[in-house]
Design goal:
9 strands, Glycerol-3-phosphate (1)-acyltransferase, seven-stranded mixed sheet, 217 residues, disordered N terminus, two-stranded antiparallel sheet, alpha/beta
């Protein structure tokens, strides 16, 4: 499989930081393992239903739960769009330990390169994961990058709803949510259908509204 690449250099984590990133990943794996996951009917069959990879979109405040989705429900490799910033470097290091591959970039920098990298990953058989309100917000504002990728690759755009029944909130721009250990999490995966072909502004507004309905507060 051809790996996504970029011509410029995103920020990365120095080797010695892995000494504590790896134990942290182990702790988070154990945390995620305590959660009681209820997936909607057909969730596990999404790859067979669409005959290949999809463009998966979820809100930025639900990123904590992504490893559960990729490890338990998807057989194809998954690529996440992660910021080229220093913070994105930490997330890339964490995701690599959780079995998720990354394409670096954002709407504010290296956006075109990131879109090309994700398109390459999708065409080689991998799912692409995008947070349409990332990396800096505004919170739950659906930006057009995911739509552009779906149109470019011709692959289905899927809304990934992750609803926590009990969660703690960080004081970040997205009110990042951390599910309480042993609590329940509901998963929904819904095809965007004809919305992808609508006018971009209207499509983004409707997709954002529906993704919020699926995800809860």
């Amino acid at each position: 499989m051809t790996e996504p690449s970029a011509t410029s250099h995103p920020r990365t984590v120095r080797w010695w930081h892995w000494l504590w990133v790896a134990p942290l990943a182990l702790v988070l794996r154990l945390w995620l393992a305590t959660l009681r996951v209820a997936a909607a009917k057909g969730f596990r069959e999404v790859e067979e239903l669409h005959g290949g990879p999809s463009i998966l979109v979820l809100w930025h405040d639900r990123l904590f739960f992504v490893p559960v989705v990729t490890q338990r429900f998807l057989r194809r490799p998954s690529y996440a769009l992660v910021s080229a910033s220093k913070d994105g470097g930490w997330l890339t290091a964490f995701y690599s330990l959780m079995g998720i591959r990354c394409a670096r970039g954002s709407s504010s920098g290296r956006g075109t390169e990131a879109l090309i990298a994700l398109a390459r990953a999708v065409r080689s058989g991998g799912h692409a994961g995008i947070t349409p309100d990332g990396p800096k917000g505004p919170r739950r504002e659906f930006k057009p990058g995911a739509l552009q990728l779906a149109r470019l690759t011709g692959r289905p755009l899927m809304l990934l709803g992750i609803r926590y029944h009990s969660a703690w909130r960080l004081r970040s721009w997205d009110r990042f949510a951390l599910p309480v250990p042993f609590s329940r999490v509901d998963l929904t995966l819904e095809a965007a259908g004809q919305l992808v072909s609508e006018e971009t502004g209207i499509a983004c507004e409707r997709l954002g509204a529906r993704l919020s309905e699926l995800s809860g507060d």
